[in-house]
Design brief:
alpha+beta; Glutaredoxin; 4-stranded mixed beta sheet; 16% strand
Length: 168
């Protein structure tokens, strides 16, 4: 798993390398976006697959249309009150341009600049081996079959414990 470190919304460190052997869905988010309803979808996905090993990470950003102007406390309160979010949320990070977080620069290096987020709620699936396994634009729901099938590919069968190898 790549060793990308984010600052969590609570100020603690979140290192992707801590999730080695697990699929991780990283999504840049914003509270004032027309796709903000996807917080509910991300929470549903997290609830459905977390016991099988899926990690969902929300990365608030204010890069697109100034749609995440709030403080970390305001973002966390909004997400919890409105959508019941309890998956890991990061502090605000830049996701595009010269100030982009190293994870997003890695995505562009791995898949080309076209893979960089163009708006809020762009989704990236990192496979358990640390490779980039999928990317979906904001218009694609995380509950879309294309996304869930890609995630399930890296999860153990239902009823198996997280960390058990998935069967193809």
């Amino acid at each position: 798993m790549p060793d990308f470190q984010f600052r969590r919304i609570d100020g603690e460190d979140l290192c992707l390398s801590d999730f080695g052997g697990q699929p991780v869905l990283v999504v840049n988010t914003a509270s004032g976006c027309r796709f903000t309803f996807q917080y509910a979808e991300l929470q549903a996905l997290w609830q459905q697959y977390r016991d099988r090993g899926l990690i969902v990470v929300g990365v608030p950003c204010n890069d697109f249309g100034g749609q995440e102007p709030g403080t970390e406390t305001e973002i966390q309160d909004f997400c919890k009150a409105r959508f019941g979010v309890d998956f890991p949320l990061c502090a605000k990070h830049c996701v595009v341009g010269d100030q982009a977080h190293a994870f997003y620069r890695w995505v562009a290096a791995e898949s080309g600049d076209a893979a960089a987020p163009k708006w809020n709620f762009h989704k990236y699936l990192v496979a358990p081996d640390g490779s980039l396994a999928g990317a979906w634009p904001p218009e694609v729901s995380v509950l879309d079959d294309d996304v869930t099938v890609a995630i399930q590919r890296y999860l153990p069968p239902q009823g198996a414990q997280a960390g058990a190898p998935a069967t193809a």
